[in-house]
Write a structure and sequence with these properties.
- This protein is mainly α and 560 residues long.
- The protein is built from 24 helices and no strands.
- The protein is globular and about 65 Å long.
- The N and C termini lie close together (9 Å).
């Protein structure tokens, strides 16, 4: 073994690694499958052409989602570091882009934990339907105790306690490390999530009015395909749901053994994420169809997204549905599982970067990152104003943080570092899907232009119509202020020297170098088409991956 290989082994032992490709895939799926898959995709599809939305969605997956996912994998897997270190090893001038992604992840972690805490509490509420006959009043009144928009120091104990529980669980998971913490969590929670949500979907399909809801979701409005907003929505949904562009997949890929089929793995993760979104759409709209029939309303009058869908619409459904308590436990339990695996991946981006930069142990980095994050989360999101602050930060960080950082990362890698051809060669060493000129053109030109278009649309919309009915000072501080702050902090942290033994030219061993109502025919066909393409593609991707892996996988350290 060469000196470089030995040094790489030592670095791998210090940072940690996934024990196998299967664990990595489950962890990556756990990161990608989050709350947005369950409460955002169904409504976005419904509002943008129904069944017709499947076509731009699949186009966006193929031309933007999967190529970007593979770029993140390539950068992390080749450069063997956290997001900032991976960017720095590509070109020292672009390190700040990695810290931009780290800052975004920190911001997301502090508010994302609050939503998980709400879901955890609502899992318990489901047993006896504690929200009563008016779930909306219960959510904003009895539970969140939300007053007028502003910042309050009044603590809500019903939120503080589950939020503290969530952070304690997350800190324990992170302290256990990459395999024993993150990997083990994914191995347990992802099968539970799939099982719980599948049971929920099956139960929803047998509710009266389920076909009415599915008909509303999958009936194609072909005229919607002529609207640029529909295509922008498809690209935005794919991008936000895959966990690309803010350092997660870069970090996870750095923990994977050298001789791993990363392109085949990426295909499985991408299609699994979209397949779960389709499953979520079927389950959610089957339940909304029941709600519409029970209340004598049209589906469009009960359909919603986000907090309204999860914490108002579903409790209403649970109140009316047979075995409603079971549906509630399954639904909110699924939110907890999906949220925890995503939160773990988000906070790992920050911990990994801090460890690389300052040469800290796993426990030290976990405490240095996790304790302040938990403290900020408890201070801002366990109060009567928490829901307002959360809504503003989430809106601006998602649109003007993640999206802008993603576009910037593609541009600097393609046109500043000129790293894209090298990343393609690296992925082709063991990949079952070869990345050729088509991929280089996509991630260097087409995808940045498409996502840039979505970004400009979002900016114009927010500039013309201020978000929500919030005071201007709140939008300035928690909205635009948070989006700008992560950029400024990124440039400052990038100026801090790395640990003394960080190797910039990462030399490698030469062999590793570079029911009551029937669905319409159109709705049935579009639902079957989506299932065939996404679920069939996922099955083929898994088959392709397993077929190429006749030999047992080698452990990470053995490969270096």
């Amino acid at each position: 073994m060469t000196a470089d290989a030995g040094s790489a082994t030592e670095d791998g032992a210090r940072r940690g690694a996934f024990s196998s490709r299967k664990v990595f895939i489950l962890a990556a799926i756990g990161s990608a499958v989050g709350l947005g898959n369950i409460w955002r995709f169904p409504y976005v599809a419904y509002e943008n052409g129904g069944g017709a939305f499947i076509l731009p969605y699949i186009v966006a997956l193929i031309t933007a989602g999967l190529p970007f996912l593979l770029m993140d994998y390539a950068l992390g897997h080749r450069n063997r570091g956290s997001a900032p270190l991976s960017f720095a090893r590509a070109d020292r001038r672009i390190e700040s882009v990695g810290w931009w992604q780290v800052g975004i992840c920190f911001m997301i972690a502090v508010y994302y934990a609050a939503v998980i805490a709400w879901a955890l509490q609502y899992t318990l509420f489901s047993v006896d339907k504690s929200w009563g006959d008016d779930p909306e009043s219960f959510l904003f009144g009895d539970f969140l105790q939300a007053g007028d928009p502003g910042v309050s120091a009044s603590v809500v104990m019903g939120v503080l306690v589950p939020l503290a529980v969530v952070w304690v669980a997350v800190l324990i998971i992170m302290a256990l490390g990459v395999q024993k913490g993150i990997g083990a969590t994914a191995v347990v929670f992802i099968p539970l999530l799939i099982l719980a949500f599948t049971v929920l979907v099956v139960r929803s399909l047998f509710l009266p009015g389920a076909a009415q809801g599915l008909d509303a979701l999958f009936s194609p409005n072909w005229s919607a395909l002529t609207q640029t907003s529909v295509w922008a929505a498809a690209f935005g949904q794919i991008f936000f749901s895959l966990s690309v562009g803010f350092g997660i997949m870069i970090t996870y890929a750095s923990y994977v053994a050298r001789k791993t089929d990363m392109t085949g793995s990426g295909l499985v993760v991408g299609l699994a994420n979209s397949s779960f979104e389709l499953l979520a759409g079927i389950g959610v709209f089957a339940a909304l169809g029941f709600m519409a029939q029970a209340s004598g309303l049209a589906v469009d009058e009960v359909a919603s997204e986000g907090l309204g869908l999860a914490f108002v619409a579903f409790p209403t459904i649970i109140n009316e549905a047979p075995a409603g308590a079971l549906i509630g436990v399954l639904f909110f339990g699924s939110l907890v599982f999906a949220g925890l695996t995503s939160l773990v991946s988000v906070i790992e981006v920050v911990i990994s970067a801090v460890r690389d930069k300052f040469e800290l142990t796993r426990l030290s980095a976990t405490l240095i990152v996790g304790v302040p994050a938990a403290g900020i989360s408890l201070i801002f999101f366990s109060t009567t104003s928490g829901v307002y602050v959360l809504d503003i930060v989430d809106h601006f960080i998602n649109r003007f943080g993640i999206l802008a950082a993603a576009v910037a990362s593609m541009i600097v890698l393609a046109w500043v570092a000129r790293a894209i051809p090298g990343l393609a060669r690296h992925m082709n060493l063991y990949g079952s899907i070869r990345l050729g000129r088509w991929w280089i053109v996509l991630v260097s030109v087409i995808t940045p232009l498409l996502l840039g278009f979505v970004l400009v649309r979002e900016f114009i919309e927010d500039a013309q119509t201020p978000y929500g009915d919030y005071p201007a000072w709140m939008l300035g501080v928690f909205g635009w202020g948070s989006a700008v702050a992560v950029v400024l902090i990124a440039f400052i942290v990038a100026r801090i020297p790395w640990r003394p033994n960080t190797r910039w030219r990462f030399r490698r061993n030469p062999r590793h170098s570079e029911g009551a109502t029937l669905m319409s025919t159109g709705a049935v066909l579009m639902m079957l088409f989506a299932m065939l393409v996404l679920w069939g593609g996922l099955g083929l991707a898994i088959y392709n991956l397993t077929r190429r892996s006749k030999a047992p996988e080698e452990h990470y350290y053995r490969d270096l």
